[in-house]
Design brief:
This protein is an all-alpha fold. It is built from 17 helices and no strands. 68% of the residues lie in helices and 0% in strands.
């Protein structure tokens, strides 16, 4: 990505030529950011980048490009935040990130997905969709799902449905959680199938999502989970979800669950029973 550095610098300098002194940085400098990077401290990097929020700085551009490629998510995100404050340079970065989503390896796709997701670049959804279908590594796919969650746009639903069928349980669980965060979502029907997932964490996350949407079609499966799932967190979440759905038909299952050996499960089951219609 370093090949776009000169173009970004040109945009930054054009902006600087028309800027007023009021747009100067708040005590930040490229040198301080570089020193923070050398320290290895994520907190120090974030602090110095935030201090340079309004800084007009030619040297900063390449430094910030490098930070979008850092292996630490928090660092990549603060770099994206810095570019988001500069629409001209951000748009050039978005163009490069879309290319990386199309052609890059797993690491480049991870970095690109985190960038377009954090700056909420909805026009990158087609590239994210194509990248999800490319059979990349787990880290890249998690970044794609994370980006869709950040954007919270209904047009990302297709990506999340694909992710829910992924072979990696982490990706399936992340997709279920992201589904809940999409604005304007009307139901959680695609998540219901994950209640029968082989992975306990996926089942637990799915129970939270279908409960949050009061997904009545999940009731029968949740009643089975709350009484017989081997994982206590799944049983607890199933009890909570049944309370949110609020059907009197769940009375028997929840009554049984009040005798669960886990106090956490029994407590949630009692609360859910009290909320039934």
């Amino acid at each position: 990505m370093k090949n776009i550095g000169m173009k970004l610098v040109a945009v930054a300098l054009t902006f600087a030529a028309s800027a007023t002194p009021a747009l100067a940085g708040k005590g930040g400098s490229n040198g301080k950011i570089v020193d923070a990077v050398r320290s290895g401290s994520v907190d120090a990097i974030i602090a110095e980048v935030e201090r340079a929020e309004g800084l007009i700085c030619e040297d900063c551009v390449q430094t910030m490009i490098n930070l979008t490629e850092d292996d630490r998510l928090e660092v990549r995100e603060v770099a994206a935040w810095w570019f988001a404050k500069r629409p001209g340079t951000k748009n050039i970065m978005v163009s490069q990130m879309k290319d990386d989503l199309k052609l890059g390896d797993g690491k480049h796709v991870r970095n690109a997905a985190d960038f377009v997701g954090y700056v909420r670049e909805y026009t990158a959804l087609p590239e994210l969709r194509a990248a999800m279908a490319r059979g990349l590594d787990t880290e890249a796919k998690l970044a794609i799902v994370r980006a869709v969650g950040y954007m919270a746009h209904l047009d990302g639903n297709g990506i999340l449905k694909t992710a829910m069928a992924d072979g990696d349980a982490k990706v399936r669980a992340a997709a279920a959680t992201a589904w809940r965060d999409v604005l304007g979502q009307v139901d959680a029907q695609p998540v219901v199938a994950l209640l029968g997932d082989a992975d306990a964490n996926v089942r637990a996350q799915a129970a939270i999502v279908v409960g949050a949407y009061g997904e009545a079609g999940a009731r029968a499966t949740l009643e089975i989970l709350v009484t017989s799932d081997a994982d206590a967190y799944v049983r607890r979440n199933a009890a909570w979800a049944l309370g949110k759905i609020g059907s009197a038909q769940s009375t028997q299952a929840l009554t049984t669950a009040t005798q669960d050996k886990s106090g956490l499960v029994s407590g949630y089951a009692k609360a859910a029973l009290a909320s039934l219609k």
